[in-house]
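Today's session is about reading a structure prediction critically. Students often jump straight to the picture, but the first step is always the sequence itself: look for stretches that repeat, for charged clusters, for runs of hydrophobic residues. Only then move on to the predicted structure, which in these notes is written as discrete structure tokens rather than atom positions. Here is the chain we will use throughout the hour.
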Amino acid sequence: MPHWLYLWPLDFVIVGFVVFGAIFLLRAKRSRDKTRKADPRSIIAIFMQGLAFAIAWMIGRQPFTPFLLIDWRAQYFVAAFTVLLVLASLIFVTAAVRTLGKQWSLQARVLEHHELIRRGPYRIVRHPIYTGMFVGVFGTVVATGEVRDAAALALLGVMHLFKIRREERWLVEEFGAEYLQYRKEVSALVPFRCAIRLVRTLQNGSKVNC
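Below is the predicted structure for this chain, in token form.
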């Protein structure tokens, strides 16, 4: 197998991680609104999320060995799939952070004039940043090629569910019935409900609207 088929996906993932960190650091904006609620325990969840990314990198396959027990030519598909996953992750996270604007924060919080965001990627899933992170780690798992890296995905999934549960409790308190309705209409991480609506609109011949 050509060495670049192993190195190119890994290099692309590394660049993706750098861009991912830059998005979080450079897109952060200070809000003039005061923070009414903040969850210090969310910092622990962030640390655990970072640990999941580290696990995905610490356990990799032996260099220049096939990811799947198939003809090496099929590795072109694996390389392309990795690139698509990383790109999709970065695009989704960037769009979500930009949509949140000054409400974006690493720590779970509720501002004085907090707005319920339902536009952009928030029309597709309620927590698009977490979805993007999960897709990014999955791309890393594909690039490193170890089944044991599933532990990284499992850890990340648990931390996402922990943060979602706490954040949504605050959002229900803040927005009440409005958020409950939003929760009925839009999936948390995987856009199942959006996909169902798309299928129905296509079947009815109406305008596609997720």
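Discussion point for the tutorial: Helices lie at 3-26, 42-58, 75-100, 128-144, 150-175, 177-185, 192-204.
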